[in-house]
Automatic annotation (TrEMBL):
<feature type="transmembrane region" description="Helical">
    <location>
        <begin position="71"/>
        <end position="89"/>
    </location>
</feature>
<dbReference type="InterPro" id="IPR050074">
    <property type="entry name" value="DHO_dehydrogenase"/>
</dbReference>
<feature type="compositionally biased region" description="Low complexity">
    <location>
        <begin position="47"/>
        <end position="59"/>
    </location>
</feature>
<dbReference type="GO" id="GO:0009220">
    <property type="term" value="P:pyrimidine ribonucleotide biosynthetic process"/>
</dbReference>
<dbReference type="Pfam" id="PF01180">
    <property type="entry name" value="DHO_dh"/>
</dbReference>
<keyword id="KW-0472">Membrane</keyword>
<dbReference type="GO" id="GO:0004152">
    <property type="term" value="F:dihydroorotate dehydrogenase activity"/>
</dbReference>
<feature type="domain" description="Dihydroorotate dehydrogenase catalytic">
    <location>
        <begin position="149"/>
        <end position="499"/>
    </location>
</feature>
<dbReference type="InterPro" id="IPR005719">
    <property type="entry name" value="Dihydroorotate_DH_2"/>
</dbReference>
<dbReference type="GO" id="GO:0005743">
    <property type="term" value="C:mitochondrial inner membrane"/>
</dbReference>
<dbReference type="GO" id="GO:0006207">
    <property type="term" value="P:'de novo' pyrimidine nucleobase biosynthetic process"/>
</dbReference>
<keyword id="KW-0560">Oxidoreductase</keyword>
<dbReference type="InterPro" id="IPR013785">
    <property type="entry name" value="Aldolase_TIM"/>
</dbReference>
<dbReference type="InterPro" id="IPR005720">
    <property type="entry name" value="Dihydroorotate_DH_cat"/>
</dbReference>
<comment type="pathway">
    <text>Pyrimidine metabolism; UMP biosynthesis via de novo pathway.</text>
</comment>
<keyword id="KW-0285">Flavoprotein</keyword>
<protein>
    <recommendedName>
        <fullName>Dihydroorotate dehydrogenase catalytic domain-containing protein</fullName>
    </recommendedName>
</protein>
Length: 504
C-alpha cells in the first residue's frame, strides 16, 4: 500500500512543481578545485607553455617598440615640417611675400591706409616673436666675395646701396624690421614737432594696374616727443644687448664704429622732420622753430636728419624751396645738429620735390645746400603731376581713374624717368658748385655732396641706373607696397646678376 502512495505523491509533486531552468554549472574549475594539479603538468606541456609565453612576451616588446618608433617618427616629421615652414615663410626670398601677401591685403582691406596699418602691426608683432621675415644670404648670390654692392656714405661703409623711404614707418615703430628685410638705409617719419592728425580720411588710393598710389596723408604724426621716446628706448635696449650704456653710444666707446642711430654695422637710420600744418609758411622764423624743435628731440637718435620741404600735401611747404628761406632753414638745422651731445654728429640732408625741375629752381636749391652746409640731397617725392603716369596700352578701371584724379601726390614706377633725369641734373649742378667753391678757396677740394634717389625704383636695373647717374643710394617706397617684404632682396639679387654679366 505504501509503494503506490509514494509513487502517487511523486507524480503529484512533479505535476505541481514550477518550471525552473536548469542551472548551468560553470565549466571553469575553481582555484580550490584545481588544488595542486596546475603545478603537476606533463613536461611537454610546460615546455610548450614556456615557449608560447616567451614568444608572446617578445611579440609584445616588438609591438611596443614599433608603437614608440611610429610616435617618434610622426612627431619628428611634424617638427621638421614646422621648421621648414618657419624657415620658408620667414625668408624674404619666399614667393608668398610677393605673390600672396600684397594681393591678399588689397583684397581683404579695400582701404589702403587700413592695409598699411595692419601690415605694420603684423610685422611689429611677428618681430617680437622672432617670426618676422628676414634676409638670409647664405647660399645666394648676395654672399658674393668682395661684396660688389658695398658703398661708403658719410664715412660709413654700407652693406648695399638700397634704402627704404619715409612713409612705410611713419612713427618709427619698425625700423629694425625694415633693416632685417635687407635695406642698408631706413628713413622713418615724417615727424612734426607737435602731434597732428593729417588730412581727413580716406586719403590713400591704390591704382593696381600701374602699381601706383595717390596719397594725401598731410604728414600725420604722433609728434617729436613720442618718436624720440621710441627711438631712445630702442637705443637703450640695443646698447644693453652690446653691454653698453646710452652714454657709451653717444661717446662712441666700445661701439667699434657702429653708427649711433641704426646701432647696426653697415647701416644708417634717417629721421625725416617737417613743420606742423598750422605753422604759417610765410613766418619763416616760426617754420624754423618747428624744425629746430624736431632736431632738438630727435637728432641724438639719428644718423641723418632729413629736412622735408617737398611734401605736396602740406600747404605752402614747397614754397620753402626758394633759395632765401631754404638757406635760412637749412642753416638753422645744421647749426642745431652740431649742438647734439654726441661724438658723431648727425648729418643733414634736404628732400626736394620732383616737380621743381626748372633749371633756375634747381640752381637755387643747390646754392642753398652749399651755403647752409647741408651734407646732401634726397631727390624725389610724390608728384602732383598726372601726365604720363599711365603707360600706353594700359586701361584703368573706373575706380582707378577716380583714384588717379584724387588730390594728392602720385607715386609709382611711372616716376622713374623723372627721378633718373633729376639725379643726373643735381649731380652735375652740385659738382659744378663744388669745383667753383674749390677754386675760390685755399682749403682744397670741397667734399662732394651726397645724393639719394627715390621715386619709381622697382628693380635692380633701375637701381643701377640711378646709381650710375650720380646717386649713392636708391630708395624704394611704393615698390615695397606692391612687391612685398622680399623687394629689397630681389632688387639686390638682380643688381648682382647684372654686374656679374657685365664683369664676364
Amino acid at each position: 500500500m505504501a509503494a503506490p502512495y509514494l509513487r502517487a505523491r511523486q507524480s503529484l509533486t512533479s505535476a505541481f512543481r514550477p518550471r525552473i531552468a536548469p542551472r548551468i554549472v560553470s565549466q571553469r574549475p575553481s582555484f580550490w578545485a584545481l588544488g595542486n594539479t596546475a603545478f603537476r603538468r606533463p613536461a611537454s606541456t610546460d615546455s610548450s607553455s614556456s615557449s608560447s609565453s616567451s614568444s608572446s612576451s617578445s611579440s609584445g616588446t616588438d609591438s611596443l617598440f614599433l608603437a614608440r618608433l611610429r610616435v617618434f617618427l610622426f612627431g619628428g616629421s611634424i617638427a621638421a615640417s614646422l621648421y621648414v615652414a618657419y624657415y620658408y615663410v620667414t625668408d624674404t626670398r619666399a614667393s608668398v611675400h610677393r605673390w600672396l601677401v600684397p594681393p591678399f591685403l588689397r583684397l581683404v582691406f579695400p582701404d589702403a591706409e587700413e592695409a598699411h596699418h595692419v601690415g605694420t602691426t603684423a610685422l611689429k608683432t611677428l618681430y617680437s616673436l622672432n617670426l618676422h621675415p628676414r634676409e638670409r644670404t647664405a647660399g645666394t648670390n648676395l654672399e658674393t666675395p668682395g661684396n660688389p654692392l658695398a658703398v661708403t656714405v658719410f664715412g660709413t661703409e654700407l652693406r648695399n646701396p638700397i634704402g627704404i623711404s619715409a612713409g612705410l614707418d611713419k612713427d618709427a615703430d619698425i625700423p629694425d624690421v625694415l633693416f632685417d628685410l635687407g635695406a642698408a638705409v631706413v628713413e622713418v617719419g615724417g615727424c612734426t614737432p607737435l602731434p597732428q592728425e593729417g588730412n581727413p580720411k580716406p586719403r590713400v588710393f591704390r591704382i593696381p594696374s600701374v602699381d601706383g598710389m595717390v596719397n594725401r596723408y598731410g604728414l600725420n604724426s604722433r609728434g617729436a616727443d613720442a618718436m624720440a621716446a621710441r627711438l631712445r628706448d630702442r637705443m637703450r635696449k640695443l646698447a644693453r644687448d652690446l653691454g653698453l650704456t646710452e652714454r657709451d653710444v653717444f661717446d662712441g666707446e666700445g661701439t667699434d664704429g657702429i653708427p649711433p642711430g641704426s646701432m647696426q654695422p653697415g647701416r644708417l637710420l634717417l629721421v625725416q622732420i617737417a613743420k606742423n600744418k598750422t605753422t604759417n609758411e610765410r613766418d619763416v622764423k616760426a617754420v624754423i622753430g618747428d624744425y629746430v624743435r624736431c632736431v632738438d628731440r630727435l637728432a641724438p637718435y639719428a644718423d641723418v636728419l632729413v629736412v622735408n620741404v617737398s611734401s605736396p600735401n602740406t600747404p605752402g611747404l614747397r614754397d620753402l624751396q626758394a633759395t632765401e628761406p631754404l638757406t635760412r632753414l637749412l642753416s638753422a638745422v645744421v647749426e642745431e645738429a652740431k649742438k647734439v651731445d654726441r661724438k658723431q654728429k648727425p648729418r643733414v640732408m634736404v628732400k626736394v620735390s620732383p616737380d621743381e625741375d626748372d633749371e633756375t629752381q634747381m640752381e637755387g636749391v643747390v646754392q642753398a645746400v652749399w651755403l647752409s652746409g647741408v651734407d646732401g640731397v634726397i631727390v624725389g617725392n610724390t608728384t602732383k603731376r598726372r601726365e604720363g603716369v599711365v603707360p600706353q596700352g594700359v586701361r584703368l578701371s573706373a575706380k582707378e581713374q577716380r583714384a588717379l584724379m584724387e588730390e594728392g601726390g602720385f607715386s609709382g614706377p611711372a616716376q622713374f624717368d623723372q627721378t633718373l633725369k633729376l639725379v643726373g641734373k643735381y649731380r652735375k649742378l652740385l659738382d659744378a658748385y663744388s669745383l667753383q667753391s674749390s677754386s675760390e678757396s685755399d682749403a682744397g677740394a670741397a667734399t662732394q655732396k651726397v645724393i639719394f634717389a627715390t621715386g619709381g625704383i622697382t628693380n635692380g636695373d633701375q637701381a643701377l641706373r640711378v646709381l650710375n647717374a650720380g646717386a649713392s643710394v636708391a630708395m624704394i617706397y611704393t615698390g615695397m607696397v606692391y612687391g612685398g617684404a622680399g623687394t629689397v632682396t630681389r632688387i639686390k639679387s638682380e643688381m648682382i646678376d647684372k654686374l656679374s654679366v657685365k664683369a664676364a
